[in-house]
User: Which sequence fits this backbone?
């Protein structure tokens, strides 16, 4: 089994998605102690983690990057 | 209180030992491994109620005293000096290029580390300041010892920023000392008078009496690398050698965290400074291509958690900040050792040039991944039992903005450092590079720190760390319980779904040959360009005006008034008689006017 084999990569995706699904389901079996209301909701950390990461990548790449990105020889010139 | 005279603080062992190293020749490398352990022993052997003062002019300096956070910070600094010395060990011999560099880098690193330890033992502001500045000297030499053109320039910028920061800090100290003296305080240097904290330093007050506190805060925040004062970090650290960066990652920012904890615990402004640092670090790290610069930005991100904890200021938050500094120094050094090993074996530092190294560097990869999991606060790693305390403190205080931002930043850490670093260096595409793992000493240092990352995360094993925190639990009480079902599940959800976001967004995250401008642009580009294109031409023009006034104009006047007889352009030269006649005439007019009624 080699890591760069497409079959292995496919298998890794399937296993990962199953783990992710199980993690969300596990939320039903633990008792949360919310401090702000929404943080105790079902699967809160899952969607929040995904959403903020997407937001941060988009903001970095398309907002900050748009204004501040330069070639890496910028200071050598 | 047990008072003693003349006994130096434990950090002095490292400083003096470091200065001795060049004289020891062949014995130096072995001695260098022993010195941090001796220092660690001395720290733990120093009685908890000991205080040492030295006379200094008409004041006395308290060079050794225990603050609540002294033990945890000095212990990790000494441990770090050992790990760094092991990683830097000159296996190729002192005559080799690496050995030659070691002879400069290691003494400087020990002066740097020893001074950091001395800062944690300082009982007065002047002692603290002197060792604070000595750290700047030591760390600058560490940057320079890489011996490249890039490191020479970056080291100079680094030194200048820290000198300016030091001046601002000193100005604040002086302002406060004079104010204390005018109030008749007998010991104006004592650290206790500088603990502005939440009570004496309201975050938003800007009255003239707060100038000292503001200047001191600014001076310390320069070293904490808070944006926009912190671009020196990502500028200078990645330019040091593979071992130099490991040392650099540990001391400056964490000493600033210690000082903030002593002087400004509970200052609300620091909550927002910390949150800004946490987000800034993620955004810049996401855009970065240089593997060590990614990790440099993530230092700022992690220090942001600590600064935020200090701003919250409760016992739980301060414990969390101190514990997280302890864990952070270990996993960050580990990550930079892993990156340093890759740099040492391949000579490459850009993600675009790397990839697929898992084929031939398994130990470096595994240790790098352990560091990446620890920085992400995965359960069963050190980050999980330390960082959670800061989040918990934010929740306990019902600070919604702080909690939601810290939780977002926790997810972002996994994205920008936890996955990005190992993925682009060890997996991603196959770069075709097949270097072996680095020499034994580098492997040993990585395995040692990786083991610490895991051990500190195991239930029960982290108890000794909790026991040395600034506010240990009372007898029979529990400080904090990180391992609850809900906490483990929510942390895993947060991290793994952030991982999912990484792989879903991978096309957007593809590395490019770019850098992202930071506030160092102002002194690297704007200031020189302003001089070159605006000030210098104006100065040249003014110079011509000045030359016109000082030499051109008198020459012209002379030529206009006085012309040699043979040329006679404007005036015929007068004889003496003519001049006498004119003067007599003028005197006569005066005489008449003087007697006129």
Assistant:
């Amino acid at each position: 089994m080699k890591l760069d084999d497409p079959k292995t990569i496919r298998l890794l995706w399937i296993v990962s998605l199953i783990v992710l699904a199980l993690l969300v389901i596990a939320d039903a079996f633990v008792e949360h102690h919310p401090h702000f209301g929404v943080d105790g909701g079902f699967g809160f950390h899952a969607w929040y983690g995904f959403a903020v990461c997407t937001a941060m990548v988009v903001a970095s790449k398309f907002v900050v990057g748009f204004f501040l990105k330069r070639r890496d020889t910028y200071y050598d010139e | 209180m047990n008072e003693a005279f003349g006994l130096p603080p434990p950090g002095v062992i490292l400083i003096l030992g470091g200065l001795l190293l060049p004289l020891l020749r062949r014995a130096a490398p072995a001695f260098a491994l022993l010195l941090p352990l001796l220092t660690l022993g001395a720290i733990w052997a120093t009685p908890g109620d000991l205080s040492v003062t030295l006379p200094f002019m008409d004041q006395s300096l308290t060079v050794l005293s225990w603050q609540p956070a002294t033990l945890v910070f000095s212990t990790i600094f000494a441990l770090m000096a050992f790990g760094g010395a092991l990683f830097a060990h000159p296996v190729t011999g002192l005559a080799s290029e690496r050995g030659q560099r070691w002879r400069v880098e290691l003494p400087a690193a020990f002066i740097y580390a020893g001074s950091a330890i001395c800062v944690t033992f300082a009982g007065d502001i002047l002692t603290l300041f002197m060792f604070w500045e000595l750290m700047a000297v030591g760390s600058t030499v560490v940057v320079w010892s890489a011996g490249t053109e890039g490191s020479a320039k970056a080291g100079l910028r680094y030194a200048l920023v820290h000198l300016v920061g030091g001046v601002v800090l000193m100005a604040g100290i002086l302002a406060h000392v004079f104010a204390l003296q005018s109030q008749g305080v007998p010991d104006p240097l004592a650290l206790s008078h500088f603990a502005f904290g939440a009570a004496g330093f309201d975050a938003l007050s800007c009255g003239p009496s707060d100038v000292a506190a503001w200047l001191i805060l600014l001076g310390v925040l320069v070293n904490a690398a808070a944006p926009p004062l912190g671009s020196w970090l990502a500028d200078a650290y990645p330019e040091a050698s593979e071992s130099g960066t490991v040392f650099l990652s540990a001391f400056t920012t964490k000493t600033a965290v210690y000082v903030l904890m002593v002087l400004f615990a509970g200052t609300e402004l620091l909550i927002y400074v910390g949150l800004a640092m946490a987000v800034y670090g993620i955004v810049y790290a996401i855009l970065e291509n240089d593997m060590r610069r990614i990790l440099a930005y993530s230092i700022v991100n992690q220090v942001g958690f600590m600064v935020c904890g200090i701003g919250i200021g409760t016992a739980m938050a301060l414990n969390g900040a101190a514990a997280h500094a302890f864990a952070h120094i270990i996993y960050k050094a580990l990550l930079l050792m892993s990156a340093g090993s890759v740099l040492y074996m391949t000579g490459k530092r850009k993600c675009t040039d790397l990839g697929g190294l898992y084929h031939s560097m398994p130990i470096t990869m595994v240790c790098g991944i352990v560091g990446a999991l620890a920085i992400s606060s995965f359960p069963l790693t050190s980050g999980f039992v330390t960082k959670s305390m800061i989040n918990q403190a934010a929740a306990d205080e019902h600070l919604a903005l702080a909690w939601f931002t810290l939780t977002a930043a926790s997810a972002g850490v996994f994205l920008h450092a936890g996955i990005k670093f190992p993925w682009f260096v060890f997996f991603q595409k196959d770069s075709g590079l097949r270097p072996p793992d680095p020499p034994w000493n580098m492997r040993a240092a990585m395995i040692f720190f990786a083991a610490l990352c895991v051990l500190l995360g195991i239930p029960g094993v982290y108890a000794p760390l909790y026991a040395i925190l600034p506010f240990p639990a009372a007898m029979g009480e529990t400080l904090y319980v990180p391992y609850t079902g809900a906490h483990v599940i929510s942390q895993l959800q947060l991290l793994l779904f952030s991982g999912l976001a990484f792989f879903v967004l991978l096309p957007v995250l593809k590395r490019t040959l770019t850098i992202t401008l930071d506030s160092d642009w102002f002194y690297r580009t704007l200031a020189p360009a302003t001089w070159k294109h605006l000030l210098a031409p104006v100065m040249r023009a003014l110079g011509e005006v000045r030359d016109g006034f000082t030499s051109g104009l008198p020459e012209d006047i002379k030529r206009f008034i006085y012309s040699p007889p043979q040329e006679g352009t404007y005036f015929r030269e007068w004889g003496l008689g003519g001049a006498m006649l004119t003067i007599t005439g003028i005197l006569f007019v005066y005489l008449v006017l003087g007697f006129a009624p």
